[in-house]
Design a protein that fits this description.
The complex is a heterodimer of chains A (about 150) and B (about 650). Chain A has about 150 residues and is α/β, with parallel strands linked by helices. Chain A is built from 5 helices and 4 strands. Chain A has a single domain, classed as Rossmann fold (3-Layer(aba) Sandwich). Chain A is about 40% helix and about 15% strand. Chain A has a 4-stranded parallel β-sheet with strand order 2-1-3-4, with helices on both faces. Chain B is an alpha/beta fold and about 650 residues long. Chain B folds into 3 domains: about 130 residues, 3-Layer(aba) Sandwich (Rossmann fold); about 180 residues, FAD/NAD(P)-binding domain (3-Layer(bba) Sandwich), CATH 3.50.50; about 160 residues, FAD/NAD(P)-binding domain. In chain B, the strands form 12 sheets. In chain B, strands 10-7-6-18-29 form a 5-stranded parallel β-sheet. Chain B has a 5-stranded parallel β-sheet with strand order 20-27-21-22-23. In chain B, α12 links the parallel β21 and β22. The longest helix of chain B has 20 residues. The two termini of chain B are about 20 Å apart. Classes of the chains: A alpha/beta (about 150), B alpha/beta (about 650).
């Protein structure tokens, strides 16, 4: 039943912006659905696109990558690298028959707790519409395609 | 609770779950988290405490580390930004390497934002993922690095001067770089300062002289920072010092050179209200006290086309063969105090600025009020030199106007406009001063009292409302506005209009920020590391911010921030050694093919290519962008390898844990 479906999400959050924004959402007691398990990284640029594939292989229905706004990256330019990698990964996913919308890249600043909560709500509701990810067929394709970001 | 089936040879992880009073325990069933984690492979001990950060809570962790010979610890509690250091220190006290302790954030990221039984399930997954991470962690030690023994201060305004003096008085060497021929900055251009009406130059010049004479300060005026490389404690700076063609040790400021110079160009210090020669001194109290020959406007030095100034210089101070100097310095810390400009008045087309000569900006008015200014302190308008009898001051000109100009409040304009109107009334007793304002923001010590004095004692007409249009009519400047308190349309036939222009970062701030690898915010002001708790620091370690380059500020704030930045720099200079995080990238030389894909990924130039890539640990800030780009898995992030993260992913998604690894 689509209504009972609770998508599983992994959220890679950079510590300086998106992670701090998530902390602010917490401090501000903003409610959002508990579907995503956050994994903290120093920079969104650390997120290897293989991690996203690993998440899909391990049962995730969606992956969120949260970084600093363009121009605000604590490490100067990591978020630009991520943007290019995600752009490419989405193309690969589409080729594999996985909806590219299952990977969401969001810029959330340390002051945007409300935005973080909103993104979480939106993403979970979109994933509910997409339904569970079925990897039959796609999974076979996933193995040899090393979706590494050579940006 | 001890694990019923501990693995004798594998990792021995302890998990400590915090109630945080009701903050976590209110929505997370802490006991269920403890039970679940106690059964997690590799966990040999799991416990809970009301407040894990309290001394008894920390003692619980320390005892367990010893009693259960733990090889790793997970504390499931608040965000790592809160207590990671606390718990890592506790672990170290118990003999466990601090990098073998990880925080599972089950408060900000869980208990505070969810409700219902899923909250506990999520907390369990977060904690399990942290256990998987810590299983793969290695003991690390911060790298000890020596450092340079100087501080660079960029910008010789009052904030930079204060920073330089404080560092120098603490006994450390300072290199003070100023772009223009003299230090002093904007404050040197001001007439008097609010709210005390102190003469601005009179209170500033002693500091300028002290900075110039200080044995620990190397003053480089007419100089700019060309490049910056390195890292906290060891920045290498290249400075370009333009030739002034005048030896400051010989120049006696007689001024004969300027009298014979045939060139006349607008005087920048007087905001173009008076001319200057190509050889000039910006103002009489300039430091260093010397004339400067402005190469750009001189008739020609190579070949020499005029040479009049050298002929009349009786002390032989003028030297046409002077060349640009390239100066290199190694510094431990950098204070950026590059100040502000006014938002160009010519952008205010609705106020006729740039086309109507008697519409001037606030700094021009400061020069008109200054005894050393183009009118010797008499208020005379630019067009015909007449004393204006009706003066309109327009506040928020370019500020608080997100549609057309700048969205922010420039903070100091309410105060200096009150001062302007008051000084005008003191100068022209029969004159009338009008001030158009949106709000009066007088938050500062004795500021409100000053504005009240201007309103009540000085009979300045405050009109609440915006000015719609300013145009020229004969020798009058007509101002159309609305007084929103009475609802009446106001028309003033003024003799002079003064625009309180928005403050903007000084020209070149963004370019300098790029050289320093520090960030500018949306409006171009330098960005601090944290708006509340780290307002003096850039996000790049060892670089500090002072004065209006960071945002609109008045003089006391700029001075205080200069001192604060100096204290931060002194903390670095006075440390015997500095530490650098060991959680950085490293190369597995057996796997690296030398393809150098990683090299351009690094924003710090920390990776050098070769047979195999090499990471300079001290330059690496640990972002991991190179790691994600490495096509052969040779670039690794210490204590956050791909293998660790993938195991975290699997556990977070509820996959069973492979036992026997770790």
């Amino acid at each position: 039943m689509a209504e009972d479906f609770e998508p599983k999400v992994v959220a890679f959050l950079c510590r300086w912006c998106a992670g701090a924004g998530a902390d602010l959402a917490g401090t501000s007691r903003l409610r959002y659905p508990p579907n995503a398990i956050p994994i903290r990284v120093n920079c969104s640029g650390r997120v290897d696109m293989e991690w996203v594939m690993e998440a899909f292989r391990s049962g995730a229905d969606g992956v969120l990558i949260g970084g600093c706004h363009p121009g605000d990256c604590h490490y100067v330019s990591g978020n630009y690298k991520t943007r290019r990698r995600v752009y490419l990964l989405r193309k690969v996913l589409a080729e594999m028959g996985i909806e590219p919308e299952r990977v969401r890249l969001e810029w959330v600043s340390a002051t945007e707790g409300a935005k973080f909560a909103r993104v979480m709500r939106e993403f979970v509701s979109e994933l509910k519409k997409l339904g569970p990810l079925h990897l039959e067929g796609a999974e076979r394709a996933a193995e040899p395609v090393a979706a590494r970001g050579r940006s | 609770m001890p694990n019923p089936r501990p693995d004798a040879r594998g990792p021995r992880i302890g998990v400590f779950v915090c109630h945080c009073g009701k903050n976590i325990a209110g929505t997370v069933e802490v006991e269920r988290v403890v039970e679940a984690l106690a059964r997690h492979p590799g966990v040999v001990y799991a416990a809970r405490h009301e407040y894990m950060c309290s001394d008894p809570g920390q003692d619980l962790i320390k005892r367990a580390i010893k009693d259960h010979r733990l090889t790793g610890v997970v504390v499931a509690a608040c965000s790592p930004t809160m207590h990671e250091t606390t718990f890592r220190n506790a672990a170290e006290e118990a003999g466990l390497n601090p990098y073998l302790l990880e925080i599972a954030n089950i408060r900000e990221g869980c208990s505070w934002v969810h409700e219902g039984p899923e909250t506990t399930d999520k907390a369990i997954r977060i904690a399990r993922a942290a256990v998987e991470k810590v299983k793969g962690n290695h003991p690390l030690a911060p790298t000890e690095v020596g450092h340079a023994d100087k501080c660079l201060v960029i910008g010789g305004g009052v904030s930079g001067i204060q920073a330089a003096l404080d560092v120098a008085n603490a006994g450390y060497e300072v290199v003070l770089v100023e772009r223009s021929p003299s230090i002093g900055g904007r404050m040197a251009q001001l007439s008097e300062t609010f709210p005390t009406l102190d003469c601005s130059q009179c209170i500033l010049t002693p500091k300028m002289v002290e900075a110039a004479r200080h044995p620990k300060i190397r003053l480089l005026t007419y100089a700019e920072v060309e490049s910056v490389s390195g890292y906290l404690g060891n920045y290498h700076v290249v400075i370009r010092k333009k030739p002034t063609y005048v030896d400051p040790d010989k120049c006696n400021l007689c001024g004969d050179c300027a009298k014979v110079c045939p060139v006349r160009v607008p005087d920048e210090f007087n905001r173009g209200l008076s001319p200057r020669a190509a050889i000039y001194v910006p103002f009489p109290q300039a430091v260093p006290s010397s004339y400067t020959l402005d190469e750009e406007h001189c008739l020609g030095l190579n070949p020499l086309r005029c040479g009049e100034c050298a002929k009349v210089c009786t002390v032989g101070a003028i030297n046409y063969d002077m060349r640009e100097e390239r100066i290199e310095e190694d510094v431990a810390a950098i204070v950026v105090a590059t100040g502000y400009d006014l938002y160009g008045k010519e952008r205010m087309t609705e106020y006729g600025a740039g086309t109507v000569p008697d519409v001037i900006d606030a700094l021009e008015f400061e020069r008109l009020l200054s005894a050393g200014g183009p009118t010797r302190g008499e208020v005379r308008r630019p067009s015909d030199g007449k004393v204006p009898k009706e003066v309109v001051f327009i506040q928020c000109s370019g500020s608080r106007d997100p549609e057309l100009h700048k969205p922010y409040c420039s903070k100091i304009c309410c105060m200096y406009t009150a001062k302007h109107a008051l000084l005008y009334r003191h100068s022209v007793h029969d004159g009338t001063a009008y001030i158009f304002y949106i709000d009066i923001r007088a938050g500062g010590k004795e500021y409100e009292e000053f504005v009240v004095r201007a309103m009540e004692d000085e009979r300045i007409l405050y009109l609440r409302g915006k000015v719609a249009k300013v145009y020229r009519d004969g020798d009058k400047v007509i101002v159309w506005g609305v007084d929103t308190l009475t609802g009446k349309r106001i028309e003033v036939a003024a003799d002079l209009v003064v625009l309180a222009q928005a403050m903007v970062p000084s020209v070149g701030t963004e370019e300098l920020a790029r050289k320093l690898h520090i960030a500018c915010g949306g409006e171009g002001f330098l960005k601090e590391a944290h708006p509340k708790l780290r307002p003096l620091e850039a996000l790049t370690a060892g670089i500090f911010l002072a004065g209006a380059a960071h945002g609109p500020k008045d003089i006391p704030e700029a001075v205080a921030q200069g001192s604060g930045a100096a204290a931060k720099a002194i903390a670095i200079l006075s440390s015997p050694t500095l530490t650098h995080s060991p959680e950085v990238a490293e190369v597995d030389e057996d796997l690296c093919s030398g393809c150098a894909v990683c090299v351009p990924q690094c924003p710090y130039g920390a990776i050098s290519p070769g047979e195999v890539a090499h990471v300079n640990e001290l330059l690496c800030e640990g972002c991991g962008t190179c790691v994600a780009a490495c096509p052969s898995g040779a670039m690794r992030m210490r204590n956050q390898t791909d293998d660790q993260v993938k195991r975290m992913i699997r556990v977070a998604l509820g996959e069973p844990v492979e036992v026997g690894r770790g």
